[in-house]
Amino acid sequence: SSSSSSSSSSKTSGVTGRKDTTTRAREKKLAVDEESIQPPMPRGDPTAIGSEPLQPLHTPKWKRVEGVEVPLADDSFLPPMPVNPRGKNYGLHESDLAPSQLKGILDSNPTDMQLAFLGTAAFKPHQSRALGSMALLRGKDVWIFDSGDDLQRQLGALPAVRPSKVFRIFITCITPDCLLGLPGLMCTISAARARGHASADIPVHIYGPQGIAEFLCTVFKVSNTYQEISMVVFEFVPHAVEEGDRHPTLFNKRARVFRALVPPDALNPKGITNGNLDSFMPTYGRAEIRKGAFSSGGPLSFDPRAGFLPFPHPTPGDLTRSQEDLPLESLTWTVQADISARFTVVALPNGAQAQSDGREQEGHLVLAYIVQEADRLGSLLVDRAEALEVESGANFTMLKDGKTVLNKHGQGVASAMCVTAPKVGRKVAIMGSGAALPATNSAFVKHAMGADVLVSGAVAPPSGGHLGDSQEPTSHGFTPSLGAAALGALAAQLGVDRLMLARLDMRQLQQVLQQGTSAYQLAPVRQPGPGTEGEKASRESEERADEVQDVGWSRQALEAAESMYVQQLQQEALESVAQNGASCNVSVPFDFWLHVLEKHG
What we know:
There is one protein chain. By secondary structure, the protein is an alpha/beta fold. It has 14 helices and 25 strands. Helix 7 links the parallel strand 11 (273-274) and strand 12 (332-338). Helix 11 crosses helix 14. The protein starts with a helix and ends with a strand. 38% of the residues are buried.
């Protein structure tokens, strides 16, 4: 009994001790608060921040001023307000970064936006340049622009572009150089997202002119190909569309192809198209068995604390407008990808074909895509907030959210005094192979103005550099391209930071070689002969097979001629930019060129 009584007494004393400690701390705090309480400030005109110190206003920490606009006072005594700088964009091979830094950029993509050129030939690809294709590497996914033939092998040669992360594919024109690699690319993506993959059931969105869905279904049917993943094809049309056709509907069950026709914004009742990956999910197959409509929630979800500002609300279209009042070059198709980006699709001049009866037939619809990143909240300037005597913690969060808070003297501090201006999102304009420059009042010029990077379509040879000089009849009718000088003038008009001459017409490289025969050493392919000498020549020919190019030119001669070819194009573009009174960087990328776009601000 004595032990139990001692135990209970110890417990009681422990509780009493804790209560005494808590009571003493509370009394001490109340005493301090009573000493600091002063009569409240008179409610009149707000006193300018930075004048003589005011008497403290006793205000609970949880009480804040919300939705009250406080006039900005003189802030000359504060640290200067910085200006958000424009982010640089550069090719990795051009940078002077250390190997460890380059590896970090390749592995983690810290800027959340890189351009990877998978093919840089418009026509007649060869060993060093594949048919045109480009990848836009974002933080969580990869967008592919155009799918030239043999794109599968190009993806395998560049580890930075992972097929399992490709969720959107953009086609600029229904021509072989832009479309033939699409079925193989879909097979590669399907194989990369094996069963159990986190994004195995998320469909791939494909955007382009009308006819892509039919092309895919035909190829899969003829080749007896079965796809594990679903494809949602958004086809842009220049006319109004019925309500049911504006939403993805099953186009071919065996091929898992869904199709939606997208009208121009001017003829769209909503004024915009919802392209979010989780806006439409197939309800059969693995998506139904495993996760259903919620299967796209995890891998591509965005943290609301990322600071992306909402885009302007679109203007609803008018279905009563006549299509004749809407020229093709004035049409736009806007698609909201997610909270971080939206893209605008515009039509480019596509030329016309002369028919045998003298009439002109319009060519294929040629599109351009302008990708716009959402603006982000400005940066909180802690030194200015501390100079204004704003308490840290929740106050800093409220300032970052654009709200007004009270400092320790009870004075209102507006968000604009401690937070920089919103950081402008990056913009990339990707052109198709148009036949002429867009008009000054065209939708392309309006939406591509001020882009960080302008990626060209097919580029005409450096000789002449005039519009349409390189248009030659081909198996698909015509091959429009623009000269480097014309593209330089367009870049100067748009005020872009960098022009990328991305797709070269390699058919004229033969002429460049012939013009420089005195500077290069011929290296013809050795033909095997009879007997022992023939076997020896055959072995030598096989050893040098990777060094031999068309018409017997050696790799060294070809690289030297191509270098001269590229320099001429770059010089023409730079001279054109200077003649138009502008300043712009001009680059001619090669295959597997990685281009980094740093964030603004």
